[in-house]
């Protein structure tokens, strides 16, 4: 029997500027429908599960800025009235000085699960075993630590 593939869980949060006076301690679905958005784009069929869930609920974001990486999202939200979806663990690492805050999604965005899967023919491949071991060691304990949402 093969060991389970390492998994890393996270959740989606909404990122807004810390000085956005239109947003209080929480967001509403109505606000998401009218606010300008920063979204990530990685290709013609790429979409996050949270974005698909949002569209299934009838929320079509008014996209103002498109970026290719989640790492640029905070800088594109800071000092504006924009909103973006971001991974909670990434949002928790944003310095306060950048001027953004993370809020819970006002809809069920669904969990974000990163997993590693491979074809059984690579189970005993030394290079593949090494790579799986490196990834496993990198994510070990992440799911066992509950990091509360840090509101900025």
From TrEMBL:
Which keywords does this Swiss-Prot/TrEMBL entry list? DNA-binding, Transcription, Transcription regulation
Q: Which InterPro entries match?
A: LysR-type_TF, LysR_subst-bd
Residues forming the LysR substrate-binding domain are 8-135
DNA-binding keyword on record: yes
> Which stretch is the leader sequence?
none
Q: Name one Pfam family in it.
A: LysR_substrate
User: PANTHER family in the record, alphabetically?
Assistant: HTH-TYPE TRANSCRIPTIONAL REGULATOR LEUO-RELATED, TRANSCRIPTIONAL REGULATORY PROTEIN
Q: What is this protein called?
A: LysR substrate-binding domain-containing protein
Q: Which organism is it from?
A: Amycolatopsis plumensis
Instruction: Read off the lineage from the record.
Output: Bacteria, Bacillati, Actinomycetota, Actinomycetes, Pseudonocardiales
């Amino acid at each position: 029997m093969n060991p389970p593939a390492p998994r890393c869980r996270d959740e989606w949060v909404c990122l807004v500027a810390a000085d956005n006076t239109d947003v209080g301690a929480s967001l509403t679905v109505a606000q998401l429908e009218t606010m300008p958005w920063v979204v990530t784009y990685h290709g013609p069929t790429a979409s996050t599960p949270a974005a698909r869930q949002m569209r299934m609920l009838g929320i079509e974001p008014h996209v103002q800025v498109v970026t290719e990486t989640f790492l640029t999202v905070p800088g594109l939200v800071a000092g504006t009235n924009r909103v973006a979806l971001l991974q909670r663990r990434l949002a928790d690492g944003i310095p306060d000085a950048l001027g953004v805050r993370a809020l819970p999604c006002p809809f069920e965005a669904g969990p974000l699960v990163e997993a590693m899967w491979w074809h059984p023919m690579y189970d005993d491949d030394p290079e593949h075993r090494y790579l799986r071991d490196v990834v496993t060691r990198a994510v070990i304990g992440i799911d066992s630590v509950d990091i509360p949402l840090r509101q900025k």
